[in-house]
Amino acid sequence: MMKRYIGAFLTVLLLMGSLTGCGGSRQAEAQVFAMDTVMFLTACDGDGEAALQNAEAELYRLESMLSRTRENSEVSQLNAGGVCAVSEETYRLIGAAMEFGAATGGTFDITIAPVASAWGFTEEAYRVPGQAELTELLTHVGSRHVRRNDQQLPDGTYSVELDPGSQVDLGGIAKGYASDRMAAIYRQFGVTSGTVSLGGNVWACGTRPDGKPWVVGIQDPNRTEEADAYVGKLHLSDAFAVTSGGYQRYFEEGGVTYHHILNPATGYPAESGLTSVTVVAAESGTMCDAFSTALFVMGEERALDFWRSGVYDFDMVLVTDDGRVLVTDGIADAFEETEESGYVYKTVS
Prior knowledge:
Strand order of the largest sheet: 3-4-8-9-12-15-16-17-19
CATH superfamily: ApbE-like domains
Helix content: 25-40%
CATH architecture: Roll
CATH class: Alpha Beta
Structural class: alpha+beta
Order of helices and strands: EEHEEHHEHHHEEHEEEEEEEEHHEEEE
Number of strands: 19
Number of helices: 9
Radius of gyration: 20 Å
Number of domains: 1
Shape: globular
CATH topology: T-fold
């Protein structure tokens, strides 16, 4: 018998409701359902209403362009095969995804799409594929199967080509990119205090009106049924925070749990010793989104080595399956431990 589980819409990285209110009559709020996610946005100053109206429209636009399951999206047209003309925006996002994939040694890979479908995570038709099937599908996975022509076409588009049998899925980077777009819209309308929560992707805009940081709770992967069960809280200002965890989407079959974060090297759900990865950075939600997945696949030691390399500017919180919480020293002062959580906390440098 198979059971499937999908976490509640804010069990990954939650802006805590009691601490996010703008505390004044100028607060504008919006709730949007896009990219299969319930999203919450608040704006505490500037032209908040206009910002949120434009933000909502932008989320729907991005979904229509980047969704793999929408028939007429640019991604679906690309996955149909052959050479495809895509917008400059999609072209550059694919390029960013390939850059992050190369930087992380392939632990983030948008061409994992056929394998994800084999497991049923894209279509929500869950099953355990056989080894022979996975072995064949993995021959279509890897950046070598994607070719981008950097020569812009007369109509402003760019051509991208996929090898036969290969497909891309931007789901592992799209919400991060959307949070970057939300930040741009907030700036356009003079919003300097507010929040954007796109499921496990959060952007803390400025500070709260009282000057204090926004508070972001990191869900306890072992207590997902409890909405207020956190391994800790981050106190953030002008920062993106993205969490990836195997508890977000998974199913059980034959007494075995299979989660949706796949290792591109094996085709199986990653077994890295991590249950949750949160990546925090000031500049790029897109990067945070890609890296939260990649570092989850890497596991503790490789993730720490990657962070210590200093090639990219970010910090992180790692939750391990043996009950430890590792916080990099760049955000140690902003991290609040949860008393009596049962976890052992350590700051790493």
